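Minutes, project huddle
Topic: does the predicted pose make sense with manganese (II) ion bound?
PN asked that the exact inputs be recorded in the minutes so nobody has to dig through chat later. Recorded below.
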Amino acid sequence: MDVLASRLVRFLHTSDWHLGRHLHGLSLHDAHQAFIDHLVEVARSERVDAVLIAGDLYDRAVPPPDAVGLWDQAQTRLVLEAGTQVVVIAGNHDSPARLSVSSRLLERAGVHVRVGTGAVGTPVLLEDEDARVACYPVPFLEPASAVAAWGVEDRSHAAALRAAMGRVRSDLALRPGYRSVVMAHAFVSGGQGCDTERDISVGGVQHVPGAVFEGVDYVALGHLHGRQRLADGLRYSGSPLAFSFSEAAHVKSSYLVDFGVDGLRGVEEVPAPVPRRMARLTGTVEELLNSPAYSAYEQCWVEATLTDAVRPLSPHERLKRRFPHLLKLVVPSLAVEVGGRDLADLDRLSPVEVALDFVTEVRGRPADNDEVALLQRTFDELRRVEVTR
Ligand SMILES: [Mn+2]
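Predicted holo structure (tokens), as shared on screen:
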């Protein structure tokens, strides 16, 4: 670290940890743990002044105990081992009341947890010899709460954020010589979503124009899970882990953000540890089981989409032998229709007809006369047993 670098204010921008989340039934606890180990090490070795977490710390309003334990550990180690401050805002998945437990006490330790409208416009100040930065955390706000707290006329996310930014600007105007950072959890127009972000739309209005942040030196955004740069000083760090196969192609990372006396100096990507690569494979069961083309994916988290014309026998068990980390099996032919019939017809079919459709579906040809008779006898027998019981 040279002399120049010691005169910077340095942030690490991350978001959307979703502690407590599962990936197709698999706990991501170990993957989250590895990310936290990595984050503490980066914060320490890069002499980060503050780690900014732009919302969705937890996956659910009521996080499971091991997720609470991970956050307890992360904030403690960031302060005590890495010597950094921590600023976290509530996202749309977080419970403001639960996230902000003991927040006034934590503030003294350098952990700034911001929820609700109350503290909007009050910055966390970071200073070095030359650089002075005012960091304004703007938590996710339901439009209704902005209406109630600030008398905002328009019940939308854009109006709530405009009102919040009005408070930020009023405070910043009183701090000459300060550079500005804003943290927000929102869907900014131009951003690319994927299928793991919970919709935050209210009455169809969910996008917020980037212009609402005009004049801010760096906006640390959360909500979208793919890392993206909307402008040099307007970025989504994205989530540190992939939460579905739709994110298989994402590069997960955090941003190291440097400020000097003259403003934003640079933004550098810091790749996050990859717990296991993800692969989306498509083919027949035989191809997937035998083709050498798939050797490279045997230790990946796998989503397999079958193209067999007829549903093969026990595909899950067989594929697991080659791909022990198979997490998702898609069998398109069975996904939408039952025997070529609309699912809405099911109510009108007799049990025997439903069973015959099933036979056709899994075997690719209809039952013969003997089989039809056997099924009919079986159902008659079952009904007789039911009636006499
Ligand atoms: Mn999220």
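Observations noted during the meeting:
- Residues 16, 56, 91, 93, 197, 223 surround manganese (II) ion (CB under 6 Å).
- The CA atoms of residues 40 and 78 lie 6 Å apart.
No decisions taken; revisit at the next huddle.
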